[in-house]
Amino acid sequence: MPKRTDIKKVMVIGSGPIIIGQAAEFDYAGTQACRALKAEGYEVVLVNSNPATIMTDINMADRVYIEPLNIDVIKNIMLTEKVDSLLATLGGQTGLNFAMELQESSFLDDNHIAMLGTQAKGIRMGEDREEFRKAMERIQEPCIDSRIANNLEDALKYAHEIGYPLIIRPAFTLGGTGGGIAGDDDTMLEIAENGLALSRVHQVLIEKCISGWKEIEFEAIRDSKGNAITICSMENLDPVGIHTGDSIVVAPAQTLTDTEYQRLRTATLKIVAELGIEGGCNVQFAQHPTTEEYAVIEVNPRLSRSSALASKATGYPIAKVASKIAVGYTLDEIPNEVTGTTFACFEPTVDYIVTKIPKWPFDKFTKAKRSLGTQMKATGEVMSISNNFESSLMKAIRSLEIGLMGLEVPAIKQLTDEMLNDKIRKTDDMRLFAISESIRRGTSVEKIYQETMIDLFFLRKIKHIVEMEEQLKLGYPSNEIFKQAVLFGFTDTYIAKLTQNSPDIIRERRKSLGLRYTYKMVDTCAGEYDAKTPYFYSTFDTENEAIRSNKKKVLVLGSGPIRIGQGIEFDYCSVHSVWALRELGYEAIIANNNPETVSTDFDTSDRLYFEPLTADDVRAIIENEEPDGVICQFGGQTAIKLIKAVSDMGVRIYGTSADMVDAAEDRKRFDSIVETLKIPRPEGTTVFTLEEALEAALRLGYPVLVRPSYVLGGQGMVIAYSETDIIEYMEIINANIQEHPILIDKYLMGVELEVDAVSDGENVLIPGIMEHLERAGVHSGDSISIFPAYISEKFRDIIVDYTQKLARALQVIGLLNIQFILYKDTIYVIEVNPRSSRTIPYISKVTGIPVVDIATRVMMGAKLTDFEFGIGLYARYPAVYAIKAPVFSFEKLHDVDTNLGPEMKSTGEVLGLSTRYSEAMYKAILASNFRFPVKGDGILLTVRDSDKYDLVPLAERLFQLGYELYATGGTANYLNKHGIPTSIARKINEETPNVISLILSGNVRLLVNTATRGRQPERDGFRMRRRCTEHGVPIISSLDTLLAVTECLETDMKPVDIEPYEIKRFSDIVYKTRKNILPLNEMPSNNPMLKK
Amino acid sequence: MTKAYLIMQDSTIFEGQSVGSEGQVTGKVVPYNGMTGYQQILTDPSCFGDLICMTYPIIGSVGTHWDANSSERIQAGGVILREINAESSSTYTDQEFDVWLTENRCVGIKGVDTRSIMRHLMSQGSMNAVITSVQDPDIQSLVQLARLYIPENYIVKVTTKSPQLYKSEKSGKGLIAAIDLGISRKEKEAILFRGTDMLLFPYNTSPEEIRSYHPNAIYVSNGPKAQQTDHLIIRKTLQGLIGSVPIFAVGNGHLILASAYGLKLSSMKTGHHGVNYPVKDLKTQATYITAQNHSCVVDTSAIQIDSGIKVTHVNINDGSIEGLRYTSDVFSVQFVPDPISQEFNTGYLWDHFIHLIH
């Protein structure tokens, strides 16, 4: 069927900020969708609150709205834009939920808007547990015995009917939020209560627990004519019981017989037919490990994390094909762009093994419960490709960037047998390594199978690696063993480490044995047709398919897995750099290992190497490609930390040199630079040991800021108020071995300011200056960031001057990011990062300056004066506000303190755009999914002594607005003494009503809690905050944030009132008013500068 | 470990290790791109004598099971693979894959760059080769051996020796006379499952003899490529049967039926060998994924518009003929349809065939 001609303007809903369970995969999907729809001649209107995405780029859609994902906002945009159709199956669960709400409220019908792709009926069948069960009954596909409960009594009744153990899952939630396994009534009731609260439809599924069965997934695609294919099978190494997002996943399925495989494939096709899928669909099965029994676990009638993985694993562009199906094409009409000669209607076949390992945030959240279960905890993932399982696994481990090259982990080696067995049983993020250690100690794979139900196939492969590690430790390996180690994916460096040799010697030996990196292509067809999209993985084989071209070429290093502190923004930068290089006529080569991203899409670069980002792997790519140079400054910490190794290989670095990157990071070198430039910086020093740290802190005077050098996202950064703090923090920081010194600085409680700039070595271009709402002490990635900064002209000039001087002194070519503090009328420089930053996508979009594009061109030789944006500060005080707010995933991570500090905790971000400060702030806070309390609701206040004075006027304003104020003892007395009626809330361990019962009863709809200083677990506060998080009560942990929220409450704005700004219209306003010196309209009254 | 060599007719040599039986075998190198089903393909009579090159890199992970065979024995001449997994983790294993190969005297080579072999075939066209575990082989003479290789009379090896009756569990829907050119288990099951009994005939049975059993319909099975003489015999048999009862032919049967109707066959560069070929039914416009294994095809240009012969199915990738209809009750397809029909597969072709009886 040809494409639909009855529709002209399509609305695409994005998935919003990155949170656990919904990450970059929807940027990849949405970007592919927007491009496919535009290529078909449709006008595309996009709404997404996440500014770090590529899909919200000015050119991705015809009309881009970076606006809160709220039903009223979406309706408003749909009506203003007069869209005639909606594509919602590419925006994750968020997009799907909005589509269902629009459909169910008959908004779509009333406004004659067509729903594209899978229809509401099919979506409901996939999403609603009861309808799903009925659908499976109709087609005689087995489900797991389960019941839907709408209340606790039913839950208990059904639990007894089915029998323990049970899995409890809330309906309509992301990443299994709020689910869990229960073995008895008490646990069941606790999980069910929480689940009912979290479910949009107030339902939980009580289900027979099938832990230990194989978890198999099929990705399928179907068109309106009924043609259907399966793209890929995937097998979770971890059996049922661990969320698939937290499981190691292998593609294709490894342990199924042909009969089992065909049975599940047939079931998949039956299911997509029954649901009437028009587009992509993911089906999850549980296969009994020893019998024929299987069951359908769930169906996702939309693109998902698994479809991103399947797409990258096979080369089949699922999102693009799904978009074309949505506008009416059928599979037999859509070309397979990978081969160029075949069609989308065929099942990809792979001739390699793909391994995905999740990236968990436990290195950041050292106190979080690391156990894995039905609730997803990973923030991102890595994928690797190889032609044997061992090396596929080894590559994936290297890609994780957790300091490991193999299966041996020092901390795990130190565990007693008992602790080790316990760790294996507890299924946490380190289980793979615990299993390896157990095998190393002689436990049989059969015994581990009994314990874990991980298929013997995988355990034996793990054993091969462990045996090889041990073999190599014996010393000089024979040629045969050496060769086997290389084939198993042991890098030169790892073999060198195990055999106690130098990597150079190992490399020579490897080459002398004829073992060379050969690259194979991912082509969807196992070599049957010539592929057009060069997308490579390394092997040690006879034929190399990645033949070097004679074009001028540049290698761009990507940013690896999404993690806290290094999110999708760096993929945005890498992709834009690649695009700029291609425009300049270079062959752009990218190396990355994140399957969720646009950078690993088949048509983003000229060549893609799907490889780990370590010195060994990058060296091999460089040897194969011999690029003219390498770009390391866009891929976050992952890429920049390779700059020295790459530079040492004798390859040209485009942009700032490795030596200057070191000068910015090395404390002594940097200190001497700022001293020469006469730029003030907070006093500080570097230390290695605890003793040195204590001595330094004493000399500088508390409080001090303690952090390791060479880190991103403030990993391990803390404010220390006392010796005890220092002792505690040094222990945590030193848990991981430190190659680099620890920095200790005097901590200044001022206004944090931030700039991003492009430098060509002579001049700088600064798009704008950003200010952080929360006073210094909250990590910049976790604070609300306001553009433009409200500071006087004098300070703006100083910042431009300092930026210029630093860029010249560090000979920066390309991007740099500088953090300043304005403290007592002086601008101090905190740190300089000669690379891309988290704020690049946001500042690019709001100012309309293609920052990465310019930076790339400058790195390739252009001058800033070649562009139309001039030099110096571009937007001084434009008549707009662009406010970025952080988004957290605390409800997914138990035992993580929600209190904010200098260590970054947010997983994503949203943007609020307006010409009015109050509206921009309201939009930003609304978009961050903050649930504003309504008049009459209770607000619980409990603040540290130093904040009590500042709380009074805010509490007064909240009281005037009609909120009921509760506070704990000290805070309540203080407020009452100042004439603000406040009810006293009893402490946690006192009789009810106390703080907890207030939270549970729903009386309190907002918690304001500024923690006592330090991180010393102040248990009451911590428990109170966790309770709030688990019950969806928002928490404010800084009075600066409270002020912003109070102002929003005072404006009494509603989502329906807010004015959406199309992004081009917004950047036009910036352009027209960029030379303003003074604020034109509202002034942010919360600025500490104004208080003086 | 014993070294083994794969020596192709164009002098390309791959060195690996011996798996299965040691020894030497000559045959045509034929790829198989399925990620499962290694046992099924090696026992498929249509692969008789071929050296099957597995494109999936790990083979043997679920061992072998007697119930998974497509016929009673390994039919392939040899096997080429990258890595053998000789330790099955599946409960459905009664013999490890390597032991099974050895016991069935199948010669194989492992540890070779199978993707490179595949790419070589795709660029150079299909070719013959020798797998040998003879040490220090005389390359020149083996290249010559591969180059001069002429398949033996394969149909004789796979066809039934005498007529055999298969009763359906739910008998009563009639009798199908099946001409056995190397029938696979899948085909037998598809027919018996639908309630018809099946009388299997050796490929060289005369039309008169077949007719003497008064079958309700004729089925012509898939099988290995036939030699000229056999091809002529079967063609004659089919010509003698056309017009009496409904006929359905698949795979190689489809090719010989076409030639019985005077259509021309042509060789393909590498053929279709695998599990993921998209075939479009031109009547319903639906597209299906099919498993195929053939190197010849009915020449599209040979079909006269006024002949009454209709192309019913085509391959959407290369446009080749995948199905033909000669008369209202004689039809054939290039692939073996799925035994059990679902709305998304080709099982409807069997249904249609059985329907023609009534």
Write a short abstract of this structure:
Chain A has 39 helices and 40 strands. With 1092 residues, chain A is of the alpha/beta class. In chain B, strand 17 and strand 18 (321-327) form a beta hairpin.
What does this structure look like?
The complex is a heterodimer of chains A (1092) and B (358). By secondary structure, chain A is of the alpha/beta class. In chain A, strands 27, 28, 29, 30, 31, 32, 33, 34 and 35 form a 9-stranded mixed β-sheet that branches. In chain A, strands 14-13-10-11-12-15-16 form a 7-stranded antiparallel β-sheet, sandwiched between helices. In chain A, strands 17-18-21-20-19-22 form a 6-stranded mixed β-sheet, sandwiched between helices. The longest helix of chain A has 18 residues, at 258-275. Chain A is globular. Chain B is an alpha/beta fold. Chain B is 24% helix and 31% strand. Chain B has 10 helices and 19 strands. In chain B, strand 13, helix 8 and strand 14 form a beta-alpha-beta unit. Chain B is globular, with a radius of gyration of 20 Å. Classes of the chains: A alpha/beta (1092), B alpha/beta (358).
Rg for CA atoms of chain A: 28 Å
Helices and strands of chain B, in order, run as EEEHEEEEHEHEHHEEHEHEHEHEEEEEH
Largest sheet of chain A: 9 strands, mixed
Major beta sheet, strand line-up of chain B = 10-12-11-13-14-19-18-17-15-16
Major sheet of chain B, described briefly?
A: 10 strands, mixed
Walk me through the topology.
The complex is a heterodimer of chains A (1092) and B (358).
Chain A: E1 9-13, H1 25-39, E2 43-47, E3 63-65, H2 71-81, E4 85-87, H3 92-104, H4 107-110, E5 114-115, H5 120-127, H6 129-138, E6 146-149, H7 152-162, E7 166-170, E8 180-182, H8 185-198, E9 204-208, E10 214-222, E11 228-236, E12 249-251, H9 258-275, E13 279-287, E14 294-300, H10 305-314, H11 318-326, E15 353-359, E16 380-386, H12 389-399, H13 410-413, H14 417-425, H15 431-440, H16 445-452, H17 456-473, H18 479-487, H19 492-499, H20 503-512, E17 518-521, E18 535-539, E19 553-557, H21 569-583, E20 587-592, E21 607-610, H22 615-625, E22 629-631, H23 636-640, H24 643-648, H25 658-665, H26 667-677, E23 684-687, H27 690-700, E24 704-708, E25 718-720, H28 723-733, E26 742-746, E27 751-760, E28 764-766, E29 769-772, E30 785-787, H29 793-809, E31 813-823, E32 826-833, H30 840-847, H31 851-859, E33 872-873, E34 881-887, E35 908-914, H32 917-927, E36 938-942, H33 945-960, E37 964-968, H34 969-977, E38 983-985, H35 995-1001, E39 1004-1009, H36 1019-1030, E40 1035-1036, H37 1039-1051, H38 1063-1073, H39 1088-1091
Parallel strand pairs in A: 1-2, 1-4, 2-3, 4-5, 18-21, 19-20, 19-22, 20-21, 28-33, 36-37, 36-39, 37-38, 39-40
Antiparallel strand pairs in A: 6-9, 7-8, 7-9, 10-11, 10-13, 11-12, 12-15, 13-14, 15-16, 17-18, 23-26, 24-25, 24-26, 27-28, 27-29, 27-31, 29-30, 30-34, 31-32, 34-35
Helix pairs in contact in A: 1-11, 5-6, 7-8, 14-15, 15-17, 16-17, 17-18, 19-20, 21-31, 25-26, 27-28, 32-37, 33-34, 33-37
Chain B: E1 3-8, E2 13-20, E3 24-32, H1 38-42, E4 51-54, E5 58-59, E6 78-80, E7 83-84, H2 97-103, E8 107-110, H3 114-124, E9 128-132, H4 139-147, H5 154-158, E10 164-166, E11 175-180, H6 185-193, E12 197-202, H7 207-212, E13 217-220, H8 228-241, E14 247-250, H9 252-260, E15 265-281, E16 287-298, E17 310-315, E18 321-327, E19 330-333, H10 348-357
Parallel strand pairs in B: 3-4, 4-6, 5-7, 6-8, 11-12, 11-13, 13-14, 14-19
Antiparallel strand pairs in B: 1-2, 1-9, 2-8, 3-9, 10-12, 15-16, 15-17, 17-18, 18-19
